[in-house]
């Protein structure tokens, strides 16, 4: 079994006439939390969308375990045990929290058929999901919507969770709650790939880090070593952590 659950090898992605990714090499170790950092426009979200098959690589390979998933469509990729929480969260505002969760629980046709033990675990991670169970999702706060988005992604067991900027726009108290939840998810055995701009979030959670610039990964290694090297941080991110 490969030590890396997910790997990208020389991935190029074009969107229309625009060449966005220029040979991305990325490894996400099994059972760890990998932070994908970089300035705005570096190609982080495009990398996530390419992994999920929302955009297809024009060159290179995306592998999940030993399987080449480069040419698969998004539903096929999701069926392999990969969940994706986009930056806009993808919440169905007119549906209740319960209905949003039920849509993601593909093995259940009604709420009573959802895995009770798993729901209890999710409610422990995100109490607001239980509190607002029958409320319209569109009425939730930004932090509550983010909790719902992550809860929906893990309502069924997943091997890999991919999340785009989970702390964006959230209050510090909600960010701390999110950090604790992702830490618990990692300890449960879920491999996680996070795009994040909040440096405190990245330092607290990251095992490994990859930094992107101009459509390429320009640095990868341990998060601890990266956090200790202010000169490297300034050269890659334009700031020190």
UniProtKB/TrEMBL annotation:
Q: What residues does the ABC transporter domain cover?
A: 6-239
Q: Which organism is it from?
A: Variovorax soli
The protein, known as: Branched-chain amino acid transport system ATP-binding protein
What single Pfam family name could you report for this chain, choosing any that match? Answer: ABC_tran
SUPFAM superfamilies with a match to the protein in the record: P-loop containing nucleoside triphosphate hydrolases
Q: Which family does it belong to?
A: Belongs to the ABC transporter superfamily.
Domain of life where this protein originates: Bacteria
MF-aspect GO terms:
ATP binding
Q: What UniProt keywords apply to this chain's record, in alphabetical order?
A: Amino-acid transport, ATP-binding, Cell membrane, Membrane, Nucleotide-binding, Transport
List all membrane-crossing ranges: none
């Amino acid at each position: 079994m490969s030590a890396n659950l997910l790997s990208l090898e020389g991935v190029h992605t074009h969107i229309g006439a625009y060449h966005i990714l220029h040979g991305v090499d990325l490894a996400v170790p099994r059972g760890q939390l990998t932070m994908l950092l970089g300035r705005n426009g570096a190609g982080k979200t495009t990398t996530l969308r390419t992994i999920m098959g929302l955009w297809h690589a024009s060159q290179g390979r995306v592998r999940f375990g030993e399987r080449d998933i480069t040419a698969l469509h998004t539903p096929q990729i999701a069926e392999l045990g990969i969940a994706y929480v986009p930056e806009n969260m993808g919440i169905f505002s007119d549906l209740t929290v319960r209905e949003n969760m039920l849509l993601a629980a593909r093995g259940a046709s009604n709420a009573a058929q959802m895995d009770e033990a798993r729901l209890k675990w999710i409610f422990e991670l995100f109490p607001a999901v239980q509190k607002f169970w029958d409320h319209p999702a569109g009425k939730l706060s930004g932090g509550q919507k983010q909790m719902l988005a992550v809860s929906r992604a893990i309502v069924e067991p997943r091997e890999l969770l991919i999340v785009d900027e989970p702390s964006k726009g959230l209050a510090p108290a909600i960010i701390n709650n999110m950090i604790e939840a992702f830490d618990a998810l990692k300890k449960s055995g879920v491999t996680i790939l996070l795009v994040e701009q909040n440096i405190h979030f990245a330092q607290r959670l990251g095992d490994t880090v990859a930094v992107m610039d101009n459509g390429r990964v320009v640095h990868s290694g341990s998060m601890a070593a990266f956090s200790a090297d202010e000169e490297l941080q300034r050269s890659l991110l334009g700031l020190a952590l």
